[in-house]
Every structure is written in C-alpha cells, then in structure tokens.
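Review form for a predicted model. The reviewer records the input and the model, then writes brief findings.
Reviewer: anonymous (R2)
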Amino acid sequence: MRLRVGFVRIAAALLIVYGAGFAWPVRGWAQGTMQEAVEELIREREYDMRGLGIVVKDLERDSILVAINPDSMMNPASVQKLVTAAAAIELLGLHHVIPTRIYIDDSNYNPDTGIVRGNMYIMGRGDPGLTGEKIWRLVQNLRHNGIRRVTGDLIIDNTFFDDVGVGPGFSERESRAYQSLISALMPSFSSIGIHHRPGAVPGSPVHIDIFPKIDGIVIENTATTVGGARGRIDIATELRRGVTHVVVKGTMGIEEQPTYTHRRLWQTWQAFGGAFRAVSAESGLRIDGRTVRRAVPDSLINAGPFYTYGTEPVSEFVNLMLKWSSNYVSEMLFKTMGARRRGEPGTWPKGVTAVADWWESRELPGTPYIINGSGMGSVQTRRNQSADSASGQSATTRVRTENLMTASQTVALLSHVHRQKNYYPEFLAALPSAGVDGTLRSRFPRSRLRGIVRAKTGTLNSLRVSALAGYILLDNKTYAFAIFCNDTGSGQFDNWTFQEQVVELVAQEGW
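Model under review:
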C-alpha cells in the first residue's frame, strides 16, 4: 500500500549563492560561486540536469551553497535509510532493546528435573539481531535456567507483525540475501550462510554446510570439483512445497578458498523454529512436540515470561542499517515503529504513517513519498489486453514501485539530526566513512576526504538510481549534502565519480 504524506511546502526560494561576490579558484574553470562550479562540472560531464537533484548546505552559517533541482522528487534508493534511522532513534529510543520472550506452562514445570510437561512459547517482537550465535546463546540461557525437556510443542508467536513478508519494492522471486523476508521472529537476518569448499581431487563433490543449522532445510548439491584456481558455482535458494531448498550447481576450483555465500530464507516462523530446534538438539534441550504458530495465551502473558532475551540496543541496529545498508534491519525497525505507534500488528502502511507523523512533528519540509524503510524499489512489466479485442494484441506497461523525496528534504533531515546533541554522535559514527569502512570503504580513493566524508550511499541498478548524502567534516566547517542521480550518467561508476567530484568542490571551498 502506498501512502503519500503531505506537509507544508517550503514557502521561500532557496538561497543558492554563498556570500556576495565570493570567488575561489577551480581547476579548469573560471572563478565564480560554488553553484557555478557545480553547474560547469555538470556541463563538462554532459549530464542531463533533469536527472539530478543536488543541495549543499553550510550548517555553521545555515546557508545553501548549491541547489540543482532542489525540490524535484527523486528516488533516493538506500539514502531512504537516513529517514528510517532518525525516526527509529527518536520513536523507539537510542538505547531501547527489543525483547524476545519465552513462556512455558509454569504449572507443569519441575525445576529439579527440568521437564516442562506442556508447551514452550517464543514471542518475537521484531528483534533484528537474532543471529545463529544469538539463538545458541538463548538456548544456553534457557538450559542454565533449568530447562532440559519440553514434552509439548514449540509454539512460535510472530503476531507482532502481520503475515506480509515481502515488502513494497522487494522481489518475490529473487534469492539474494538483500531481498529478505520480514517477520517479527526471524533467524540470522532472514538469510542462510552456505559454506562451500572444494573436494580433495577433481571430480569429487563440493562440500556444502549451512549456518545457522535449520531443521527442515533441504540441500540439493550437484556441484563438483575441477582443476585450477576457479570454477563456476551457482548457489540459490528456492521455495518448494513450503520448504526452503538450497540448490548448489556447477563447479569449484580445487585451489579456491572455502567461503560463504548468503541467500534468502523463504520461510519465516518455520525457519526460526527450525534454527531453535537444531541448536536445542545439539545443546541437550529436548523438544518432543511439533513446531506450530499461534499467539501466546493471555493467561501466560498476564503471568509473565519465564525468560526475556534481548540482543543489541537500537543504536547498534542503526549502525548496521547505515554502515552496511541492511535492508532487513531497516524493514524490521520500520514495521516495529508501525506497531509501536499505530497499534499491533506492525505493517508497512502503519510504518509509513508512523514515520510521516514523526516527519511532520519535527516540522521537516516537503512531501516525501514513502513505501518502505530501506529504499528498495522495483520495476515490473505488466501485460494489458488491448482495447481492440478483434486484433487480439496486448500492450505492456512498466510499473515502478519506489520511494520519492527531494534533495532539499534530505538536507533538511541531516540538518535536523545535526542539531540533536543527544544522538548526533551515534548517528554520525554509524554512517560509512569515506575510504575507511561500510559502503564507502572503496570510494574516494587517494582523496584528502578519507575519513572526513560520512555519508549514506544508495544504488538501484535496475532503476538507474545512484545517490549519496551525508556530511563533510572539515576543521572549521560542517556541510550537509545530498546528490541524487536518477536515470542520468553512463552508469554507476560514472555517477560515483561525479558525486565525489561535487563533494571535492565543496571541501575545496572550506579548506
């Protein structure tokens, strides 16, 4: 469901010239304002200016230095995560820990024998951090609290979110890990690590293991070892009859190093139950019954949980979301905000409304069009029957599903965050650092801006979208900037180079 969120538009035109008569040298260009220098760069690179949205702001002087199509609605790609991160920090709390609660039939539990003569219930509340290692720790904590055997069922309660696992803008067929399913109780970022290593001699099978181990996962491996340093291995996951299948084909060179490939899980609560049961079996916690899904009874909720497990605080998830552009974390927090602010179960439309209300309450400008929390978008081709039924012909329509916002809105958000002394340091530390880490670790090569630019990247190759937005941290100045490239330039590398050149120009003015 799409929901356009309306706010008051900016009443006055943006001031684009920094200081009357200010002049500075630019290599290869005549002296002029930064606005003129950026426009000259656009002309030299032969970019279609209609596909650009650029705003640069001096935060110390509260002045706009560059404005190219500042109010044009554009696809921000993963720059959308800046909105989700700021809203999550303010609505959920920087130090808030999302709980996972364990309930048992207390009246049938003997703490001396460790036997629960009844069911064990696991209630998920949208914790994005339940990795394979954390599930192992959860099981150990239950054993340390005395539980050795459950004679009844393992009951999974993921009703904190609705049953829609594929978000707007996500693919229903793609098995890559960034196309993750969303549920209130999921293992390992909704993905599975598939470890593959070559056999001892050419012709022998490639060895496959998965992490975390998940009861019920089916592995189909026909890959073989070949001579040389490199083979051609194909690893995917598929959903067949309600079960996730890991399908491995092709070859692996005998000299290749073992490695992991991560792929999407196609089940939600079943996958968590399977991971929990696998770890329990290895750890000596026996579960006799089936794995089923239903809500925890009110009587048990009122009596209180047997054990409550929490992983990292929201600040750590914001770091994962921004530093490594985790779509899974973004959507988990997005739905959680929807549930917390608009009532359970959490849904994508409720997340949209929660973020829209937050945006308006902070008096941020513009009319962003929000469909999800991660910035994922897609284009689909739909076949429509021609009105001329006699011809029997049909036409195709390309339908885009995407977030939209402006460069000026993005910079306004960055300005707002910069003023929040209670969480700006954590937000800034979570952003990728140019040439150092995250999604900017290979960007700005050999640049003086290494470690000085902190910014969120955004890339959607299928929609020809590239974006970069964040801060330039000079000794005496801090700039906020947003650079959107939509359907312009010759490719992603071209757009990356252009974005870096714009940021270099801004830094040159400040140095």
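Findings: The first strand starts at residue 3 and ends at 4.
Further findings: The CA atoms of residues 223 and 249 lie 5 Å apart.
Recommendation: see findings above.
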